[in-house]
Amino acid sequence: MILLIGFGISAQTISLEEVRTLALLNSRSLAKTNLNIQNLALNDRSRNFQYLPSLSLGANASMALWNASNATLTPTPAESFDIRISASVTESISFKSGRGIIERAID
Fold it and tell me: Residue 9, Cα to own-chain centre: how many angstroms?
């Protein structure tokens, strides 16, 4: 197979295998298929992470410098120092029920 470049001044010979490789590299449908495969793999990983427990941590600190009852500065602000720390672990449990699921399991 001969590929003419320009007005026929120069010519380059390429093999059928090189043509096939170039076609595969420039194939839009093949690129879309590869993207779909990667998307399915990411969705599968995301579904696996969905069932892991969730950890939540929080912290809060406060100190009163102003006495609101008599509008004066607090003489010992360190006595009003307050620290709160919280932690929670949650895990979602999904349960699918219905006659269709049971019937499919039997079949």
Answer: 53
pLDDT tens-digit profile of 52-87? 888 899 999 988 887 777 777 877 777 778 899 999
What's the CA gap between 77 and 82, in Å, rounded?
Answer: 10
Domain that holds residue 55: 2-106
Whether the pLDDT of residue 8 is over 70: the answer is no
CB 38 within 8 A of CB 30: no
Number of domains in the chain: 1
Q: Which two tokens stand for residue 74?
A: 């607090």
Q: Say how far apart CA 39 and CA 46 lie, in whole Å.
A: 10
Both tokens of 33, joined, read 């298929």
CA dist., res. 46 & res. 36, Å (int): 15
Whole-number CA gyration radius for the chain: 34
What tokens appear for 5 in the block?
A: 């470049």
Entry pTM: 0.36
